[in-house]
Amino acid sequence: MHAFKLGIKYIWIESDSLSVVKTIKKEQQCFHSTANSGLDHIWRLLNKFDQFVISHSWRESSRAEGYLAKMDFGVNDAILQPVDFPESLIDIINEDARGKLYMRSKKD
């Protein structure tokens, strides 16, 4: 894990999937046998940190993360410095900093 290699001792991870957050926090069971080995790996990595937090955030409040997740860096790990941010990502960050409100849309 890149954060651990950088000497980071405390980590806060957010996901817009409440089910994933509850599963990682062991608040609900995972019934998919293929996911269990992935969960074991996640728990081993998390336990390397002195402290960690796993929390849920609504998709509307994680627009910058969604933007970054969709970017194709062509490699497994990428370090992106603020000077490298595309203008559209800077706009999202500035809107968040100004406290822009987002309405949740009802999914059919």
What report would you give on this structure?
This protein is of the alpha+beta class. Helix content is 41%, strand content 11%. The chain contains 5 helices and 2 strands; from the N terminus they run αβααβαα. The protein has a two-stranded parallel sheet with strand order 1-2. The longest helix has 14 residues, at 33-46. The radius of gyration is 16 Å and the shape is globular.
Number of helices: 5
Whole-angstrom Rg? 16 Å
N-end to C-end Cα span:
37 Å
Strand order of the largest sheet: 1-2
Overall structural class, as computed from helix and strand content, comes to: alpha+beta
Mean pLDDT: 81
Beta fraction of the residues? 5-15%
Topology, number of strands: 2
Note the run of SSEs as H and E: HEHHEHH
What overall form do the CA principal axes indicate? globular
Helicity, as a percent range:
40-55%
| Major sheet details | 2 strands, parallel
Unreliable residue runs: none
